[in-house]
Model the fold of this input.
Amino acid sequence: MDVKDRASERSVDTASQIMLREAERQGIDTAWDRLEAQQPQCGFGELGLCCRNCNMGPCRIDPFGEGPDQGVCGATADIIVARNLLRMIAAGAAAHSDHGRDITHALLLTAEGKSGGYEIKDTAKLNALAAEYGIDTEGRNKEEVAGDLARAAYAEFGNQEGPIRFTRRAPSKRVELWRKLGIDPRGVDREIVEAMHRTHIGVDNDYVNLILHGLRTALSDGWGGSTIATELSDVLFGTPKPIKSMANLGVLSSDKVNIIIHGHEPTLSEMIVAAADDADLIALAKEKGANGINIAGICCTGTEVLMRHGTPIAGNFLQQELAIITGAVEAMVVDVQCIMPALPDLAGCFHTKIISTSPKAKFPGATHIEFHEDKAFDIAKEIVKAAVENYPARNAAKVKIPDEKMECMVGFSVEAIVNALGGSLDPLLDAIKSGAVKGVVGIVGCNNPKIQHDYAHLNLVKELIKNDVLVINTGCNAIACAKAGLLLPEAADQAGDGLKAVCRSLGIPPVLHMGSCVDISRILTACAAIANALGVDISDLPVAGAAPEWMSEKAVSIGTYVVASGIYTVLGAVPPVLGSANVTALLTEGAEDLIGAKFAVEVDPFKAAKLILDHIMAKREALGI
Done:
């Protein structure tokens, strides 16, 4: 296979193909090469049949029935697969919820006047959230209200008994079902700790019971930690409104200091964006020979500033290495989650500094400048200065920036969607009832080098909008769509006649960017609002979810809380559960009887679209619309 074919088989994105060929030319390994080197991957692990939960193992169950059917302790395939899945859910829930805790911490410091540059930017949302929590706002300043709100949100993590406040946004039928099944989440941390306890050797050995607690743990993430992260971020940094920006590797500048912000927490990225506007730092950049400072994002921390400031986004998960291979990046500033440990070694081939900032995430070979919210702006200036001072080390002969970049319209929070609809959801409901919009699908998730980069994301989206399905998306799917021009009102030309007419009348794209991974909570809030308006459960709506290229434990938690909320969800990569026929059947069949929704797995995006469309039409028929 020649270099060109290898690159085009790995990604459908032309900018990525250019950088993959450059990596091949320079003999640089990327995630795709490391995947190839792993072949064949452990078949037992892919089926979820490995257990390392004690030191009597590791144990594995032979899926063909020719080897042992129990581990040393007697654990069966059902137990091992269910425990492994629950641990993945717990890790994913912990990652998103810890993000929410950090945002809560930043809000409390701001309320107490101890933050290093933050301010409360959305007082209306602050007061609305205070009302949800029963916090008095009359005659009080915003800092007093914010302090009480932050303390109330903090309590959601350590509560021993529920309910988690934001779960009560869900329709009463859904809440009653959670109660009946014993999966109404209590405290965020309690569910995660209990998940780890249940999966310790000799504790919970009933696969159904394990999966049910997985649902409860995931719900504590989706309606708890993730929603807290989203809502309090809006209070601190502003609720997103539609804004235009640019996407893909072509946003990097050949004559400016390029700083890429990568990770997931907006507390840092907000301050990096602010520091890049500092007059002294801009003057220093010009002194060093640059024409200014250019900030661009990768992954969700990039998405956070994309939707609030219009900061351009350089790419999604699998483009983090490719951005460095352009040779034009002075610093990649990272915080937590989805950051490849390979980055410092790769950066060593160029002049790029990898700057780690979180005490939770250190990278050997990186420069560590620890970020603390009480000194936020000063630390951000230090980070930006380090990048600026690195500009003279750039080797012009190594610079290769693809031309590809695309305009995009982003920032469709729930509030922004309601505003675009004229102040209520009624126009959307009317469009759904009339059939102009057949349904709504949330498409989310990562990139995975096992799947051609962006291929499944883009083709699933295109197939759905062609059939008059409104798509709302977050994270790496949203970035893929931004690069392909699907986040523009003009993309309505690719939609069916009904959706096209709705988009043109409102001036919106057929694919609405709702934010980062934690902002999937916005999708839950929107579905709950639609269900409440119609007087039905979420499971009755013509809606679905999809994660075409997922790879992380966070995605496992996300998929689980989406299904537990009543939304049929299609995965584009097989999760490690096939080693247990019983667990597989519970997730793909039995779950529908329990919670009104289930998982499906379909790697072909066109077939996945057919599954989703059939589901939507069945729900429409059941509703009589």
Notes: Residues 3-60 form one domain. The two ends are 52 Å apart (CA to CA). The chain has four domains: 3-60, 77-237, 249-398, 416-623. The chain has a mean pLDDT of 96.
